[in-house]
């Protein structure tokens, strides 16, 4: 459809470095404005409406028409056409939001309502008499996202501006008017002590931040101390004061039981140092808590209680092992009659069946490391029916030194497998599940972590269907894009032109954070290595019936009591693994 083609044109302008965007626009214009022509507009107005669509999308990504040598829309020409319509639509939208907001407020439980009232009081406080910074703590499933969306809906119904962001793209898709904080506030990784926002004082984004009565930041526990400092510096600069975070009403939310910020080669001490709890402004945050689990299905309260113990690191260890953090995995999580792949997805030969195809969207195998995911994905795609398509990347290095370039021939660059970017060789089939590795447009559900189902494979385009979330079922177009790792051990900066996707029948535990599945397989070839990984893996399902585990036997996990001289036969069958929890970070 024309709207999808316009979005594809925007994506190409933003991510694919077109040599002549104007030529591409002019050549494609009849297709880009087809729906406007069909709705009765003449060619000139249709062209300007198309340009306005493109300009609006570019501005959201801090890009301008002038930078791409594209014509600017003639607003005088289209203003008369759309001004009255926009005003009418805005009034209707506000009435609908007020009605929806009242309904959502009535559905809040006791804990959510208490937090809602405190934040709204801060929004309405003009004398700075009460705290304006809050941290909402709640385990997965306690309704943090519903509370955020209630606040957004109520305040927008009052005609007020709210900015809602998240630390990860996939978490941002659960919010109204979603985006990541990297995109919204122009704070890009790698984030260090010297990192500052790239927002200019007189820009559109600066005006938006100044006008916002509330800023919400979800999954804040994955944000670093330095990122929160960049928030503080930006808000103080825009508001020209030294108040904490510029005096903005700031609501951070998250669960410290889940994965913390990633620190390459970092140990326990370095990881704890970069958390937001070590930020100078942290003492200014008032704590709000949610405890009632709204996600688990009826009859699963025991599982919810077990998850809290798992996340808090309070599950008992076996006295005969005397190994800290070594916990027993209950036997109901194991299925010895079927492989993990068969339990989660069924027979791979049936994956193209329409019913099965819809079911696999809500299923996943979770692994601690990328290498394990790659192995499982290659196994499934090999057994899956259909024609195999292979796509190879074009790899270069970011250097102007001819000698350095000659030191890295193409075959060497092709051999680099780096976290965060696709592999040199992608093997895909129609019907396969893939995961997006780049934030393209979170408002249409295309962000780092989005799962999609391939519907068609073209030479220069993947046609895919969004598999979950509020944009589920939308058809999107994904072109090849230039990608570079933001943080790697490579001696050079690798630039890889490839489709920004990987197969996603299996995915890392960290990448799954923020998602919910009906059926989860947890594969542990070796124990988890970071805080909260085991808790995140088990909490992705709504009940224990949806979780199955496969643990490889080794000296570090498995049936560790099978050779113990005083162990009973029952104890020898027990399966153990490591649960890494940094208790110092828990509130």
What is the correct CATH architecture of the domain at 123-289?
3-Layer(aba) Sandwich
Specify the biggest β-sheet: 5 strands, parallel
What proportion of the residues form beta strands (DSSP E)?
A: 15-25%
Radius of gyration: 25 Å
Low-confidence stretches: none
Keywords:
single chain, 587 residues, alpha/beta, Rossmann fold, 5-stranded parallel sheet, 5-stranded antiparallel sheet, 36% helix
Give a topology summary:
Layout: H1 2-15, H2 21-32, H3 34-38, H4 43-60, H5 75-106, H6 110-123, E1 133-137, H7 144-157, E2 161-166, H8 169-172, H9 181-185, H10 204-211, E3 212-218, H11 225-239, E4 250-254, H12 268-273, E5 286-289, H13 301-312, E6 326-329, H14 340-345, H15 354-359, E7 363-367, H16 370-383, E8 389-392, E9 394-397, H17 402-406, H18 410-414, E10 425-428, E11 433-436, E12 451-457, E13 461-466, E14 475-479, E15 481-483, E16 494-498, E17 501-503, E18 506-508, H19 509-512, E19 519-524, H20 533-538, E20 547-551, H21 569-572, E21 575-578
Parallel strand pairs: 1-4, 1-5, 2-3, 3-4, 7-18, 7-19, 19-20
Antiparallel strand pairs: 6-21, 8-10, 9-16, 11-12, 11-17, 12-13, 13-14, 15-16
Helix pairs in contact: 1-2, 1-4, 5-7, 6-7
Give an overview of the whole structure.
It is a single chain. α6 (about 110-125) crosses α7. The two termini are about 50 Å apart. The longest helix has about 30 residues, at about 75-105. Among the domains are: about 1-75, no CATH class; about 125-290, P-loop containing nucleotide triphosphate hydrolases (Rossmann fold, 3-Layer(aba) Sandwich). β3 (about 210-220), α11 and β4 form a beta-alpha-beta unit. The chain has about 575 residues and is α/β, with parallel strands linked by helices. The radius of gyration is 25 Å and the shape is globular. The model has no long low-confidence stretch (mean pLDDT about 90). The strands form six sheets. The protein has a five-stranded parallel beta sheet. A five-stranded antiparallel beta sheet has the order 14-13-12-11-17. The protein has a four-stranded parallel beta sheet with strand order 18-7-19-20. The protein contains 21 helices and 21 strands.
């Amino acid at each position: 459809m024309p709207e999808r083609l316009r979005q594809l044109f925007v994506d190409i302008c933003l991510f694919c470095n077109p040599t002549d965007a104007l030529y591409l626009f002019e050549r494609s214009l009849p297709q880009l404005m087809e729906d406007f022509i069909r709705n009765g507009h003449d060619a000139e107005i249709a062209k300007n409406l198309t340009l306005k669509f493109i300009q609006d999308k570019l501005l959201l990504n801090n890009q301008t028409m002038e930078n791409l040598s594209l014509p600017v829309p003639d607003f005088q020409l289209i203003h008369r056409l759309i001004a009255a319509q926009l005003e009418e639509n805005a009034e209707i939208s506000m009435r609908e939001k007020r009605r929806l907001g009242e309904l959502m407020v009535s559905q809040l439980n006791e804990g959510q309502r208490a937090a809602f009232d405190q934040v709204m009081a801060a929004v309405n406080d003009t004398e700075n008499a009460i705290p304006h910074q809050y941290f909402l703590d709640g385990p997965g499933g306690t309704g943090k996202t519903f509370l955020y969306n209630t606040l957004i809906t109520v305040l927008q119904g009052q005609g007020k501006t709210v900015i809602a962001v998240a630390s990860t793209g996939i978490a941002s898709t659960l919010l109204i008017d979603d985006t990541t904080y990297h995109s919204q506030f122009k704070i890009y990784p790698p984030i260090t002590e010297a990192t500052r926002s790239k927002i200019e004082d007189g820009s559109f984004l600066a005006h938006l931040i100044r006008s916002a009565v509330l800023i919400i930041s979800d999954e804040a526990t994955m944000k670093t101390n330095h990122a929160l400092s960049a928030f503080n510096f930006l808000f103080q600069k825009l508001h020209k004061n030294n108040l904490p975070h510029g005096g903005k009403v700031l609501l951070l939310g998250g669960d410290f039981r889940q994965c913390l910020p990633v620190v390459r080669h970092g140990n326990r001490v370095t990881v704890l140092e970069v958390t937001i709890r070590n930020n100078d402004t942290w003492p200014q945050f008032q704590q709000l808590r949610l405890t009632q689990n709204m996600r688990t299905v009826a009859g699963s309260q025991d599982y919810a209680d077990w998850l809290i113990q798992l996340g808090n690191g309070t599950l008992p260890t076996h006295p005969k092992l005397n190994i800290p953090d070594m916990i027993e995995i209950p036997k109901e999580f194991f299925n010895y009659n079927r492989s993990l792949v068969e339990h989660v997805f069924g027979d791979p030969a049936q994956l193209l069946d329409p019913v099965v195809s819809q079911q696999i969207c809500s299923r996943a195998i979770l692994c601690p490391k990328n290498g394990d995911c790659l192995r499982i994905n290659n196994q499934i795609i090999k057994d899956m029916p259909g024609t195999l398509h292979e796509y190879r990347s074009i790899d270069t290095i970011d250097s102007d030194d001819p000698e350095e370039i000659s030191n890295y021939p193409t075959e060497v660059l092709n051999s680099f497998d780096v976290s965060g970017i696709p592999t040199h060789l992608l093997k895909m089939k129609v019907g396969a599940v893939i995961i997006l590795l780049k934030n393209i447009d979170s408002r249409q559900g295309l962000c780092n972590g989005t799962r999609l189902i391939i519907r068609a494979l073209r030479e220069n385009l993947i046609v895919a269907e969004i598999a979950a979330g509020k944009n589920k079922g939308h058809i999107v177009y994904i072109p090849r894009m230039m990608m570079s790792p933001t943080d790697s051990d490579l001696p050079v900066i690798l630039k890889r032109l490839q489709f920004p996707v990987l197969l996603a029948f299996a995915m890392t535990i960290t990448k799954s954070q923020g998602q919910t599945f009906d059926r989860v397989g947890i594969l542990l070839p070796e124990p988890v290595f970071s805080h909260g990984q085991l808790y995140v893996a088990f909490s992705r399902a709504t009940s224990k019936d949806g979780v199955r585990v496969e643990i490889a036997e080794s000296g570090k996990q498995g049936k560790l009591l099978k050779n113990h001289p005083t162990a009973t036969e029952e104890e020898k069958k027990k399966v153990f693994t490591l649960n890494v929890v940094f208790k110092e970070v828990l509130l």
